[in-house]
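Shall we go through a protein fold together, starting from nothing but its sequence? Please make up or recall a protein chain and show it to me in full. Go ahead whenever you are ready, and we will take it from there.
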Amino acid sequence: MAREIDVNLEEIGNHMSSPVMSIDAEATAQEAALEMHAREIGALLVTKFSEYIGIISDSDITRMVVGAGHNPETTLVADVMMKPILTMDRFLPVVEAETFMQKHRVRHLAVTEEGKIVGIISVKDLVSCYSQSFRMTE
């Protein structure tokens, strides 16, 4: 008999990606795209002087660089990143992350613990969580 998972009780931190992957604000969109491709991830936090100042996703590069006709080899991450960084505490339920991400129309959310960013949760992570729950209840 399969064990049922109550997604309403699942914590964000159980489904986030960690450690956090980042890129410097002065890097190019091309470098960000190559880094995301190499790591098989969809977003990077953006740093300046070792502090997180924004987030850039593969869709940001597609829409705001390539789609807008800018050169990814010369467009800086700082010029196309999203800010401020939207965050949620790792101990909140996954359903809160889902609702928050829908409301703010984002696919990636920084995850915090005691105010410090410790991971990222994506729509892909949420789908995996829900599909795991579905498989467990079959």
Observations:
- The first helix runs from residue 29 to 39.
